[in-house]
């Protein structure tokens, strides 16, 4: 690993946010705009980003047209994966596992929501994970991920709120030697 590599998942994908920003500000000529839309749609299809597709088409309806067939197909794929991840959590809960044993499955579900850019579900699931974890370092990791999600959506007051919570956790003494 180089000094800049990290084991932190690169989610959400900020290249999508960057392209969306360029489209929303009309900073590019029409030919480049079409290329950006094409690249966004290719990424959405490849990564099966149903929630982001719905968000994008509601934010930029004049640029990215909503296609119900595409959305339904993507959503069905997402729902299969979510059901599988929820089953793992439910199985762990039914087996009377400890919070520490339920936490990895909960974080994996939150990561999946973040991968498909489902903001509300990602945030709600990370907040559940925050309640499950006892480790200050894990809390910091989760709070930083929440800040990254809000940053993707340009919600700077929420980013500041999560960074303040990170600072409070660091002041308590984060366990960074993991």
UniProtKB/TrEMBL annotation:
<dbReference type="GO" id="GO:0043161">
    <property type="term" value="P:proteasome-mediated ubiquitin-dependent protein catabolic process"/>
</dbReference>
<feature type="domain" description="26S proteasome regulatory subunit Rpn7 N-terminal">
    <location>
        <begin position="67"/>
        <end position="178"/>
    </location>
</feature>
<dbReference type="InterPro" id="IPR045135">
    <property type="entry name" value="Rpn7_N"/>
</dbReference>
<dbReference type="InterPro" id="IPR019585">
    <property type="entry name" value="Rpn7/CSN1"/>
</dbReference>
<feature type="coiled-coil region">
    <location>
        <begin position="71"/>
        <end position="102"/>
    </location>
</feature>
<keyword id="KW-0175">Coiled coil</keyword>
<dbReference type="Pfam" id="PF10602">
    <property type="entry name" value="RPN7"/>
</dbReference>
<dbReference type="GO" id="GO:0005838">
    <property type="term" value="C:proteasome regulatory particle"/>
</dbReference>
<protein>
    <recommendedName>
        <fullName>26S proteasome regulatory subunit Rpn7 N-terminal domain-containing protein</fullName>
    </recommendedName>
</protein>
């Amino acid at each position: 690993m180089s000094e800049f590599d990290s084991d932190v998942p690169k989610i959400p994908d900020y290249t999508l946010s960057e392209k969306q920003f360029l489209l929303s500000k009309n900073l590019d000529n029409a030919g480049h705009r079409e290329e950006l839309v094409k690249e966004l749609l290719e990424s959405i299809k490849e990564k099966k980003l149903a929630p982001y597709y719905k968000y994008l088409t509601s934010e930029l309806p004049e640029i990215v047209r909503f296609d119900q067939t595409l959305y339904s197909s993507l959503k069905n794929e997402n729902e299969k994966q979510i059901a599988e991840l929820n089953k793992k959590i439910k199985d762990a809960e039914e087996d009377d596992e400890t919070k520490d044993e339920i936490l990895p499955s909960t974080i994996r579900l939150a990561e999946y929501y973040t991968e498909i850019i489902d903001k509300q579900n990602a945030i709600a699931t990370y907040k559940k994970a925050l309640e499950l974890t006892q480790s200050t370092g894990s809390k910091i990791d989760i709070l930083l991920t929440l800040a990254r999600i809000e940053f993707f959506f340009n919600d700077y007051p929420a980013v500041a709120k999560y960074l303040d919570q990170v600072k409070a956790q660091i002041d308590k003494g984060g366990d960074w030697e993991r």
